[in-house]
Design brief:
globular, 8 strands, eight-stranded mixed β-sheet, alpha/beta, single chain, Rossmann fold
Length: 278
């Protein structure tokens, strides 16, 4: 995969797949590109999908300075600039959705539409408890425990599948591989705990879809609904039933692609028939 040095002073690992209007994917906490699973290829059937590793994870450099939602938003903005993409649809998952909130506020001209999936605007007591539990193994540099606690991101149905370990195996390279990457994951968990955008979300004018899952314990659906309520004109979609976890894109990819694709089709930057791959 190519690496691009951007104006924020860091080299970011990225990959581009598909053709059509650009769609940037912003990854969640402690993950690299592989954690998108099949979602990336499914979306690439209709869009020019740009996926990248946040600084310090996957193949991207850590660079200098603090890791915050705002600094990660500047990285995403800088990557679009470096790739000569003036405006893109953007889908952010979990931490990536919080990064997208900051990006839409700081650089609205770059965001054609926003899909905030598994999102929140201000931490609450239950959520802080879950995030703190998931953070601790990274502090202890215990990857086995981190993966075990990471089961909170999945549905009870998925965790009880006898082939769960085999299903997860191809995605293990997406998780931190070194002490330095585990330290970056701790910085990301800290950014999650500090994230507080709720009073500013009314400033987002970008067409926005908020997607939540009924079984999501990390970013509970009421948190996602509060984000949708705070953004003028935002649409809220709640997926329910088995597999409606924090990892909807891994458990219910067909349903997620249907919801996201329908929204993005309504937000096209170009008229049907025009061939614009920028």
């Amino acid at each position: 995969m190519p690496v691009q040095t951007v104006r924020t002073g860091v080299a970011l690992n990225y990959e581009v797949s598909g053709e059509g209007e650009p769609l940037l994917l912003v990854m969640g906490t402690a993950g690299a590109i592989q954690l998108w699973g099949d979602l990336q290829s499914r979306l690439a059937e209709r869009y020019r999908v740009i996926a990248f590793d946040n600084r310090g994870l996957g193949g991207s450099e850590r660079g200098d300075g603090p890791i915050t939602m705002a600094s990660l938003a500047e990285d995403a903005s800088a990557l679009l600039e470096a790739l000569d993409v003036p405006k893109a649809h953007i889908l952010g998952w979990s931490l990536g959705s919080a990064v997208l909130q900051e990006l839409a506020l700081a650089h609205p001209q770059q965001v054609a539409s926003a899909v905030m999936y598994a999102t929140w605007g201000r931490g609450a007591g239950f959520q802080r408890s879950v995030v703190t539990a998931m953070r601790l193994p990274y502090v202890a540099r215990d990857m086995e425990a981190a993966l075990t606690v990471g089961g909170l991101a999945f549905s009870p149905q998925m965790l009880d599948r006898p082939d769960f370990a085999q299903l997860l195996a191809p995605m293990l390279p997406a998780f931190p591989q070194t002490e330095a990457q585990m330290a970056v994951a701790v910085e990301q968990w800290d950014a999650d705990l500090l994230h507080d955008s709720l009073d500013r979300l009314g400033g987002i004018a970008t067409p926005t879809l908020v997607v939540g899952g009924e079984q999501d314990l990390l970013t509970p659906p009421w948190q996602a609904k509060a984000v949708a309520d705070a953004i003028p004109g935002a649409r809220f979609e709640l997926l329910t039933g088995p597999g409606s976890s924090h990892c909807l894109h891994l458990e219910r990819p067909d349903d997620l692609v249907t919801v996201v694709g329908g929204f993005l089709d309504e937000q096209r930057m170009t008229q049907p028939g025009r061939n614009d791959h920028r």
